[in-house]
Amino acid sequence: MNKNNYHMKCLKLKTVSLTFVFLYILSGCVENKDSSGLEYMPDMYRSPAVEPYVDYAEIRGKHDEEKSMKLSAMVPPLSTIPYYGTDSQTVSLMLPHSRRPNVEFKQTHGLNDYLFSTSNEYELAKMDSVNPLNLTKENSKEIFDNGKKIYTSMCAHCHGEKGDGNGPMVTSGAYNGVPAYSDRKALSNGQIFYSIYYGKGAMGAHGPLINKKEIWTLVHYVRKFQDKDYGAFEVEETKKEPVETNKAKK
Ligand code: HEC
User: Fold this and answer.
1) Residue 37 falls inside a structural domain
2) Which pLDDT does position 147 carry in this prediction?
3) Residue 179 lies inside a defined structural domain of this protein
4) What integer pLDDT is reported at residue 194 of this predicted model?
5) Whose CA is nearest to atom 7 of ligand 1?
6) Which atom of ligand 1 is nearest to the CA of 200?
7) Residue 215 maps to which CATH number?
8) C-alpha to C-alpha distance for 65 and 76, rounded to whole angstroms
């Protein structure tokens, strides 16, 4: 009898504790399909440090509707300068661009988080004649090779492989109004940079997609379409050589 009682008690205890365990597990279930339910160990689901691309609406059982389905990756604070190593030429190329977008670019080109200007800085960029990415005999091949790579993936579908404005986007009839670079030889280096960086007319801003060094590389590449001898150091060399040998003969 005593033994039976003991067994009954054990059974009851087991049933009661199993029910509790079952209820505890059930308590994690919620109706909202987007919710992960009660998180028993929230730190294992979400790192306490804010990480990009994580939905932070649900933390420790509290749901914050405002944050729901919003990416946690934020635009860096205004005028933040990324770290590009210690090479001073690269660093100076990457500093914030001195010409600002006009306030209208907010609407026309969807630019946000920039310092805006009320003047027409594209016109002012006519004076910016220097490409700060210095083209030399040593680096010209690398610059043009890089330019080709970026141009082929980012620009050629509109501007065409030859820079004549006949990329597949245009020939398919999907898009028009793309100029041939040869029709815009009067543009300054600064204006070409400005148009690629902030966009112009039907062309979108590429500043958020490629960095400033890559854009200055493209400026050299666009110049090459306008003048095939642009940056051709070898041509100058071969021109010089015969003159020198002539002199030597005399
Ligand atoms: C979606 C199509 C499209 C893409 C992609 C595109 N462009 Fe353009 N681009 C245009 C159009 C359209 C214009 C004419 C804008 C105007 O003058 O109103 C233009 C104009 C230009 C101009 C002349 C700007 C000026 O100030 O007159 C340059 C230089 C240029 N693009 C370079 C590039 C480069 C380099 C890339 C690649 C990073 C590129 N574009 C990507 C459509 C495009």
Assistant:
1) no
2) 97
3) yes
4) 98
5) 203
6) 15
7) 1.10.760.10
8) 24
- Would 171 be classed as within a structural domain? yes
User: Domain tally for the chain?
Assistant: 1
Ligand 1 binding pocket includes 184 (Cβ within 6 Å): yes
In terms of residue numbers, what domain contains 211? Answer: 88-235
| Best of 133, 155, 172, 198 for a ligand 1 pocket test (most atoms within 8 Å of beta carbon) | 155
Mean pLDDT (10-residue bins), the chain, 250 residues? 76 90 80 74 74 73 76 72 86 91 93 90 96 94 96 97 96 94 96 97 93 96 95 62 44
Q: Is 37 left (phi over 0), alpha (psi -120 to 50) or beta?
A: left
Residue 249 confidence (pLDDT)? 41
Q: CA geometry: angle at 103 spanning 98 and 107, to 5°?
A: 125
Ligand 1 site-directed mutation target among 124, 161, 200, most atoms within 8 Å of CB? 200
Which segments of 42-142 are extended strands (E)?
A: 58-59, 62-63
Q: Write out the two tokens for 86.
A: 């210690």
Residue located nearest, by CA, to atom 16 of ligand 1: 201
